[in-house]
Amino acid sequence: MIFKRFSLWKNKFNRLNQIRNLSSQSTKKEKPILQDGPNLKDFIKSDSLSEHGDTSSMVQLSNEIFLNNIRKHHEYLDDCSSLEKKRKVFFEVHGCQMNINDTEVAYSVLDKTGQYTKTNNLKDADVVLIMTCSIRENAEQKIWNRLREFLFQKRLKKDLQIGILGCMAERLKEKILDKEKMVDIVCGPDSYRLLPELLNQSSKTGNPAMNVQLSLEETYADLAPLRINTNNKNAFISIQRGCDNMCSFCIVPFVRGRERSRPIQSIIDEIKRLSDQGIKEVTLLGQNVNSYRDLSESVHIDKKSEMSKGFKTIYKPKIGGQRFADLLYQASEVNPEMRIRFTSPHPKDFPDDLLFLMKEKANICKTIHLPAQSGSTSCLERMRRGYTREAYLDLVAKIRHIIPQIAFSSDFIAGFCGETDQEHADTISLLKLVNYTFCFMYTYSMREKTRAFHRFEDDVPNDVKQLRYLEMVDVFRNTAAELNRSKIGQIHLVLVDQISKRSNLDYSGRNDNNTLVNFEKKEIFFLNGIDDLTKLKNGDDYLLEKKLPTIGDYVACKLTSATSQSFRAEPYFMCKLQTFENIKNFI
Q: 240 forms bridges with which residues in the sheet?
């Protein structure tokens, strides 16, 4: 009986082997022998470039080595040119303005292949790409929830590919791929050039593909971002990537890498292209935007970086390169009718030449984002911010002295490690002293890898964090409302952004201080200069031309009412930005 069972099993085993051999013969292809193929070294960005000595050439050399090796061995990379029709990509963006620009870079990379096109309809999408934020736990949780929703879509459409891009991709890596198998690709902030290959690889193999390598030199300077929303008259330009500050609470250096800046010329060329497209406002972006330093080969400046008085860093002063003031000046010269903003700066990097440039140039907006994080010197020390409460307030006073019309916005954290009632009270008093026009406020969320994660304990109870956060919000809203009400009756120049979300009969836009202004959509006079203003004031307005403003126009508005977040205004007249600068003192 045992022998009979063994014989039956043996026959089945032999038949199974025959089937496997037939399958192998029918599908197996001879692999070509690579005579001069790439090895591992060809695809690794060199970490030993410091032996070349010159820091300014190190960046370019490393980038050239990496890209040349990819071009040299392109025949061994998966080619996506075999796709029969264009695949539709749906982008969803979470987090900061930098992520908007990153999405436009990723879109540009895919568009260059000729195989992808953007769709705003999720149901039409063949690919869903989520640009993620990792700055707080709450931001990550929102993305996990969205992934589950997309997974339902994937079950309805089997060949739908889902990708995670950006900071969360780098921070969580394998966890994203493993969790419920929801994602097909994971692509870090410095790997967008590889998006087509990752998508193609995942499609061909049916397995997830990932690249989250951080770079010492990638800035995407040679890529022209494709705008996601072509209806807007404003745009974001990334001038710098990464951060060297290493604040104890911040995950950014670990998910975006070390600080590096684009060459000035590539930025100016991008601003010129945007100006030619009719863009009326650009925002220069960077994690520490005002520590910008152009180290391109054509520039050699031995000057040390100049910091605000009373501020320090964990690193030695950086030597060489053109600085943020140099870039800002050139940017403002491209088109005097184009507004220039920048974010997010660090308070340490506001030398006098930058402040006086902001004062002199009409198209550099008079608003500064000045992240405080806390109003307590002891808490700031634990946060590794490099300044005291007193140094911060001295800087605020100095800026207001040089630029009287300046407006400040800020960031604040409630319940950082070890925060006491007195430290929280110091933050509340700072909010009242400075009078910010806008604040980003959050409860503290500990992030792995950060200095706080290794050195401190997240010991402030969640209910206490929430109460402190709510008090901060309440104080800010009261002070901002009072500040805005004090401006009622003033005339501000507003760049029309869109039809108001509240009424199709209204326009909305932002003034120089970046506060929202709503006003009626109607015909108003267009002024060309001081003579036209005199006619308007003297009742000779029948001699003036009337126009209906459109999106992208500048409108001088008289503020009639205010809340903590916005103004209601009466449109007074239309004019150019530089015209308003010349006549504003005579209105």
A: 261
Weakest-pLDDT range from 22-31, 238-247, 367-376: 22-31
pLDDT attached to residue 39: 45
Angstrom distance (rounded) from CA 405 to CA 425: 28
Predicted local confidence at residue 58, as pLDDT: 45
Helix, coil or strand: residue 107: helix
- Cα–Cα distances (Å) from 234 to 109, 118, 264, 283, 505, in that order, read 22, 20, 20, 8, 22
What is d(CA 453, CA 159) in angstroms, rounded to the nearest whole number? 40
Residue 498's DSSP bridge partners are: 508
φ/ψ region of 405 (left if φ > 0, alpha if ψ in -120 to 50, else beta) reads: alpha
Taking the C-alpha atoms of residue 480 and residue 483, their distance in angstroms, rounded to an integer, is 5
Judge contact between 260 and 240, C-beta under 8 A: yes
- Cβ-Cβ contacts under 8 Å for 31 (sequence gap 6 or more): none
The long-range contacts involving 70-79, CB below 8 angstroms and separated by at least 24 positions, are: 70/43, 72/38, 72/42, 73/37, 73/38, 73/42, 76/34, 76/37, 76/38, 77/197, 78/197, 78/200, 78/201, 78/204, 79/200
Q: Do the Cβ atoms of 515 and 566 come closer than 8 Å?
A: yes
| Residue 525 · residue 544 · CB < 8 Å | yes
Structure tokens at 441: 């406020």
Span 470-504, pLDDT tens digits: 999 999 999 999 999 999 999 999 999 999 999 99
Q: What is the pLDDT of residue 144?
A: 86
Q: What pLDDT is attached to residue 550?
A: 97
Q: If 0-12 CB within 10 Å is exposed, 13-18 middle and 19+ buried, where does residue 359 land?
A: middle
Q: What is the pLDDT of residue 46?
A: 38
- Taking the C-alpha atoms of residue 96 and residue 297, their distance in angstroms, rounded to an integer, is 31
- Mean pLDDT, rounded, for 201-217: 91
User: What is the residue whose two structure tokens read 């901060």?
Assistant: 472
Rounded to whole angstroms, what are the CA distances from 400 to 69, 354, 403, 451?
Answer: 52, 13, 5, 34
Highest mean pLDDT among 166-170, 307-311, 316-320, 366-370: 366-370
Taking the CB of residue 101, how many other CB atoms lie within 10 A of it? 23
Determine the pLDDT at residue 16.
42
Give the whole-angstrom CA distance, residue 496 versus residue 485.
22
pLDDT digits (tens, 9 = 90+) for 49-103: 333 344 444 444 444 544 454 444 444 344 444 456 899 999 999 988 899 999 9
Contact at 8 Å (CB) between 72 and 38?
Answer: yes
| 528: nearest Cα among 542, 548, 552, 544 | 544
pTM of the model: 0.82
Percent helix, strand, coil in the chain (nearest 5)?
A: 45, 20, 40
